[in-house]
Each structure stands twice: as structure tokens, then as C-alpha cells.
Known about the structure:
By secondary structure, this protein is α/β, with parallel strands linked by helices. The protein has eight helices and five strands; from the N terminus they run βαβααβααβααβα. Helix 1 packs across helix 8, helix 2 (48-56) packs antiparallel against helix 3 (63-87) and helix 4 crosses helix 7 (153-170).
Amino acid sequence: MSREYKGVFIVFEGIDGAGSTTHSILLSKWLKEQGYEVLLTREPSENQIGKLIRHLLYKKVPPAVDALLFAADRILHLHEEIKPMLEKGNIVISDRYIESSLAYQVAQGLDPTWVLEINKYAIQPDMNIILDIDPKTALKRKEGKKSTKFENVDFLKKVRGIFLERAKIKNYIVIDTTEPINKVQEKIRKIVSTLLQRKLI
Ligand code: TYD
């Protein structure tokens, strides 16, 4: 899909526990301090489809149902919240987007070509940042919280493998998040500053 907007769309991806929520919040705060208008959002979104998905995170359903709901949530969220902000020339940061569908739903056994096909009406972000960590360490960070159907070491190993494989093919930025939060955030800020200079916003 064509990308006719003035803003900048940045996405954080990675396995559960990799830190996409923490780093998207820290980046958003920092960019606001620099005077940018920023929409910080996440998938599953806050709309009705997103709510249904959150309910299904604890229930086994056919993977194609997950894939279709994530794609529907994404396209609606894009239409209602993300695109209007990008058209105004602002920054949008999303905690997860298309690459999560490619990693998680393909790890569930679905055909990647089909997953891409059902996401073809979702615009491509300007930057995908893949936060990388080994699944055991990641799940330790989530201890004490109720686990979703995706949060087990073997499944997340597959998911991580797909994220890294896609990053290689698509030249995405991969950041090791076993390092302390402030070090990781510093790296992210540098990369994003370069992107913003290039985009002249
Ligand atoms: P998570 O990001 O942990 O949400 P929360 O904001 O509630 O902490 O949960 C979303 C889960 O859904 C996570 O395990 C990844 C998975 N997921 C997919 O399987 N496909 C997708 O397309 C997306 C966006 C997420």
C-alpha cells in the first residue's frame, strides 16, 4: 500500500519479555520532551477487536482465527488512530505490528505468504526495531504474571528465530535487550534521531 503521509511510523517488535512496552514508553516520553507530537499505541489495540484478541490470548483457537483477528485489529487501528496522526506529520510509535503476526502466527504453523497477504492493506512502518533476548531470560522477566498461550520457551524460540530471520532479509535493526534498560534506550534514541533527521521532521 502506498505511504502518503508526512509523519514517521516506528514499530517495536520482539518476543514477550523483550521489552517492547518499556522501550516504546521511554522513547515516546523522550520524543515528547524534544517537542514532537507523539502517539504511543500498541497491538492488540484498545478497539473491540483488540479486546476480543486479549480474551483469546488465554484460549486455544485455530491459528488462522488469531491471524485474521490480528490483521483486522491492525487495519481498523490504522484507519482510526495511526493514519490520522501520520497525515498530520506526527510520530507514531507502536508496540508490535505486522512483524508480530509474521513471527507468532507463522510459528503457529501458518503459511507466511498468506499472513502477508491478509496484511497487505496495512502500511509499512518507516522503521522496525526488533528487541532481541533469549526466551528463558525473557520469561523470567514476566514471572508472577498470568501467562498467555504464547508464553512458553519452546514456542518463543521459534518466534525469536523468525524475527531474526526476517530482520536479516529486511535489514531491520536488531537490539540486544539483555543489557541494562538505559543502555538499550540510549542506542534506540541514537537510531531514531538519525531516522528523524533523514525524514526532516
Ligand atoms: P502483549 O504484547 O504481551 O500485550 P500486552 O500489551 O497486553 O502486554 O501481548 C500480545 C501477544 O499477542 C503477544 O504474545 C504477541 C501476540 N501477537 C501475535 O501473536 N500476533 C500479532 O500480530 C500481535 C500484534 C501480537
